[in-house]
Amino acid sequence: MASPRFLESIRESRRRRNALVATPFALIATVTVVDVVAPPDVHLGPFLVAAPALAASFSGPRMTALVGVVAVLTQAVVAVARTGPNNLNHTYQIVALVLISAFVTFFAHLRVRNERAVTQLRSVAEASQRVVLRPLPARSGPLRISSVYLAAEAEAQIGGDLYAAARTVGGTRLIIGDVRGKGLAAIGEAASVLGAFHALSRQRWPLPDLVAQLETSIAPDLDGTGTAGGDEEDDPDLAESFVTAAVLDIPDDGAEIHLVSCGHPPPLLLRAGAAIPLDVRTPDPPLGLARLVITEHTTETFGFEAGDTLLLYTDGVIESRDRSGRFYPLRERAASRFGTGPEALLESLCADLLHHAGGRLGDDAALVAIERLPASG
Predict the structure, then answer these.
(1) Which candidate, 307, 346, 314, 320, places its Cα nearest to that of 147?
(2) Do 208 and 260 meet the contact criterion of CB atoms below 8 Å apart?
(3) Is the overall model pTM greater than 0.70, yes or no?
(4) d(C-alpha 112, C-alpha 311), whole Å
């Protein structure tokens, strides 16, 4: 059974729609009344073209055509009432109204068709993303994990934010990243990264070697031979393809994490009410670009004790702006919510982020929270 709040939202939506539909008819009625009572040398009939044009902005072609027909018939009635059916001025007004109504009806048809195409494309992209971006496990060894993905409402295509966790012998490996671009192409690139990450994590590679293999597996095939190489100028889009990522190894024993940062925003370590950014001394280039500048990846180690929470995120979070143009202060907001647990932390941050952005994000955003639980006695 539907909830009262849901039913009320449906009724409110219907009331707004009915109000919009009534607007062009109210305009026709107003112009007609004023035109009939106006002096003989005053003609307000040209204002009737606003009615079908207004209907085309929110209605489909059928409603727009109906409004146009009503406007034409009304103009004909006014012509007969004021000057007779043979008045040349009113004849031209009626002809112009017919032509304009036909044009705006056609454009309403194009608008509806394009909206349906965009909706279908986004549905396919969202379904593909749900297949690619699997939920993270709630527990992995001594870790408690929660994740959330927020799709941008201002874009017709969703982005390529990604995250994954893989259980290894004696630890957990995680990746969070952001593919350059949007839409199905970005989702395909994200799928390649996640597939390679899961496959390589099972092979017990040291973290720098895993990232190097990950780089090789997603590097663009620029010369069409199956290897990275060739002239990048032949396809600038391929040459500019890259993925920012943070790859982490969290051992079950000990109180540390190992991090390779490939051009990704630094994770935040939440400890004792403070949010500490884990800035690496030597950040690596994004995946897909490292082959151009370096040959080795660098791992840095940070403390991660029982009771600490690690917050991973994509740039859609920190680049979200409010109405005054201020970026979202993730570090301060995360620190104020320390100690609530991963799931409650992300739920609170998501609500706060959407409020900061006015309810609409300009870019997709992903967050992952990992808490190290105390060792069981």
Answers:
(1) 346
(2) yes
(3) no
(4) 42
